[in-house]
Amino acid sequence: MEMTLRWYGSKFDTVTLQQIRQIPGVTGVITTLYDTQPGELWEQERIHALKEEVAASGLHISGIESVNIHDDIKTGLGRRDEYIDNYIKTLENLGKEDIHMVCYNFMPVFDWTRTELARVLPDGSTALAYTQEAVDALDPEKMFESIAGDMNGTVMPGWEPERMARVKELFALYKDVDDEKLFANLKYFLEAIMPVCNKYDINMAIHPDDPAWSVFGLPRIIINEENILRMMHMVDDVHNGVTFCSGSYGTNLKNDLPHMIRSLKGRIHFAHVRNLKFHSPTNFEEAPHVSACGSFDMYEIVKALYDIGFTGPIRPDHGRSIWGEVAMPGYGLYDRALGATYIQGLWEAIEKGAIRK
Ligand code: CS2
Ligand code: MN
Fold first, then answer.
1. What dotted CATH number matches 2-356?
2. N or C: which terminus of the chain has fewer CB atoms within 10 Å of its end residue's CB?
3. CB 341 within 8 A of CB 24
4. Domain segments of the chain as ranges
5. Ligand 2 center to residue 317 CA distance, Å?
6. Which pLDDT does position 145 carry in this prediction?
């Protein structure tokens, strides 16, 4: 594995490449052209410039998170072929710049959903949190307003104001889209992009739906082992793989995370490691990465990744806000840096333990 950190680009991130460079063991960033819209073609010059900027700090680009998918592709409507064509050209431009991993998601309307961006924990830190009760009580159109005040003036991925202004329209688009339709549209998309992925050896890594169940009546398919295996088999190509995100699959306590990792051997191209602390099956917060602070056994999760021979980029996922840091919720420097160090500690212990046996 390679330890990485997500970075949104110098125009958007409160964390600098120089700071990331000083986190022990972090050698790469996972980044994006944050100001591009879903469906837009990424010009090679812009990718090249980003690459140079990252290289100047002594790091490199380990992958892209995300090249977002236009809703016409997810719904199978309108201009989907045109947007798929742009996606293919974007992949080609990434391939030419020697970038070989792309994370994306296939969630309708909303990306991840949390109901609080700054739940105060007993130690005074704040974390992102979710309760089903809050979602059930909320009109989806009000979702953005309800969390916007806690975004610390940043733009959060999947929650761009322009997008949220169109929520009603987006819901209407998905009116006739159920799980089966969404699977079919995903298949159509994957089949179209596999040739360019093969040509440039680009590993596509679908991110799970978060939380891993339907919210606001919208279909959600990347939620459990059965569905993810179905998705892999329907387009059976090694470049059609997954982002294993423990904090997203883990929202559903029925998901056995180490077991899922083992069943996805060879097809996990990217890993997000995050711990959650549950107060009830539908009330949880994003805990510090350390096992003792949350509900997951992080040793078992990292061990499963080690056991399947995972060699891709790994990143700590959302962190809490600690030590007074004001940043994009989930994406401050300090708690993620602690997470990166902890995960490397687990990895080293597992690796040395295995070698010495
Ligand atoms: C991320 C997702 O912040 C997060 O929760 O893990 O937003 C992820 O980047 C996207 O779903 C991938 O497209
Ligand atoms: Mn994730």
1. 3.20.20.150
2. C
3. yes
4. 2-356
5. 6
6. 79
Q: Ligand 1 pocket test: pick from 5, 7, 103, 276 the residue with the most ligand atoms within 8 Å of its Cβ.
A: 103
pLDDT in tens, 68-89: 999 999 999 999 999 999 999 9
Question: How far does the centroid of ligand 2 lie from the alpha carbon of residue 271, in Å?
Answer: 8
Residues 161-166 have a mean pLDDT of 81
Q: What is the pTM of this model?
A: 0.96
Pick from 5, 71, 74, 105 the residue to mutate for probing ligand 1's pocket: most ligand atoms within 8 Å of its CB.
Answer: 105
Mean pLDDT of the chain: 95
β-pairing verdict for 116-120 and 126-131: antiparallel
**Cβ atoms within 10 Å of 163's Cβ, excluding its own:** 18
* Ligand 1 first shell, C-beta below 6 A: 65-66, 103-105, 111-112, 157-158, 207, 210, 245, 272, 330
| Amino acid found at 309 | G
Per-residue model confidence as pLDDT tens digits over 87-123: 999 999 999 999 999 999 999 988 889 999 999 999 9
Residue partners of 285: CB distance under 8 A and separation at least 6 = 116, 119, 121, 127, 128, 129, 130, 276, 277, 279
Ligand lying closest to the C-alpha of residue 270: 2
